[in-house]
Amino acid sequence: MALSKLDNLYRQVILDHSSHPHHFGKISGDSTANIEMNNPTCGDVIELELAVKDGKIEDIAFSGSGCSISSASASMMTDVVIGKPVEEAEHLAVVFAQMVQGNEISEEDSDALGDAAMLSGVAKFPARIKCSTLAWKALGKALTDETGQAKEEQLHNE
After folding, report:
1. Contacts for 143-150 with beta carbons within 8 Å, 24 or more apart?
2. Are 51 and 31 in contact (CB under 8 A)?
3. DSSP 3-state assignment of 44?
4. Which Pfam family is an annotated match for this chain, by its short name (predicted)?
């Protein structure tokens, strides 16, 4: 596939997630974590709600407002982590942050990120990195240990 056609495909997937976000709204049952975060640089706001049961993310939803990259990333993130063990979701949040900062990730991690791997090109636009990582940071913060502090591997360098 020609590079321009591939870029166009990636743009279409991102626009689709932004226009028709998956898991947008509230979860149907009781939540175990609810967090609101914002990106003061551009005004993106996300409220992330999740239900963790037996060490797995049983349900997840987000609401808020933001740019297309922020909304698409949140939609992609919810698709990726629902049903996953907490440890795997934490790992993927770290991997995603590394990827959008321009660091190489393994093919296995890229596959595990699903559609979210298409956001690797954000690394070319430093101002958009915070937009793309907002939902993933909210996830990392929501998946805190019992002391209420984010684990070191959950923190993202910017």
Report:
1. 143/33, 143/52, 143/86, 143/89, 143/90, 143/93
2. yes
3. strand
4. NifU_N
CA 153 to chain centre: 15
With beta carbons less than 8 A apart as the criterion, state whether 109 and 95 touch. Answer: yes
Residue type, 60: I
Spell out the domains of the chain, with CATH numbers in brackets: 3-154 (3.90.1010.10)
Q: What confidence category does residue 155 fall into, taking pLDDT thresholds of 50, 70 and 90?
A: very low
Instruction: Tokens for 115, please give them.
Output: 């559609």
Edge to edge, the sheet with strand 56-65 lists 33-39, 44-53, 56-65
d(CA 47, CA 66): 11
In sequence order, what are the residues at sequence separation of 6 or more whose Cβ sits closer than 8 angstroms to the Cβ of residue 39? 45, 66, 70, 130, 131, 134
User: What CA–CA distance (Å, rounded) separates 131 from 158?
Assistant: 12
34 CA to centre of own chain: 15
pTM over cut 0.90:
no
**CA–CA gap between residue 25 and residue 148 (Å, rounded):** 25
pLDDT for 11 equals: 82
